[in-house]
Amino acid sequence: MRFVFFVLILFLTACQTNAEKMSTVDMYNASGDMIGTVALSEQEDGVQVKVKLEGLKPGFHGIHVHEFPKCEGPDFTTAGNHYNPEGKEHGLMHPDGPHLGDLPNIEADAGGLVDAELMLPGATLMEGKNSLLKEDGTSFVVQEGPDDGLTQPGGGGGVRIACGELKTNPEETTEESPTDPTEFNEEQEKS
Ligand SMILES: [Zn+2]
């Protein structure tokens, strides 16, 4: 027990030297336009999620953490399924749920604006099984319609309309580096 406590202290000390335990995700719609942000901050019992979006259809929309930090429009299927490290069923109202990445619906006002403050209980931005920054990271995806909190596997909220990547290493790009055209020309000249 003392050892665990000691490790915890070390861990906390290490974290203080890093940047704040916060992160901001830029959200893009299917046309590739940035429509707002999801700001994350580490809390004692989970991760606080502040959602600020514009240009949405007025009404409720599902929003979830997805398993891959890859938002390729227009359908954003590259983000994968809901983030579910504990192998649960989908839905905040499901008796065997929810996925760790399940969040309450957000509501866009008559002007299409969203300003919501949500929680992801049990999640963390630090290391661990429930880290939103495991492996390469995760992503946030907004749906066309509301999540009904029960329907498997994704809540029945319809198509994905916005996506944002939460990457472990934001400097890293997933694009392949282009081939060097000079090299190619030299090869051509030789032959
Ligand atoms: Zn889910």
TrEMBL record:
Residues 172-191 have a biased composition (Acidic residues). Residues 144-191 are annotated as: Disordered. It comes from the Bacteria. The keyword Isomerase does not apply. Residues 1-19 form the signal peptide. SUPFAM superfamilies: Cu,Zn superoxide dismutase-like. Residues 36-164 form the Superoxide dismutase copper/zinc binding domain. Keywords: Signal. Belongs to the Cu-Zn superoxide dismutase family. This is Superoxide dismutase family protein.
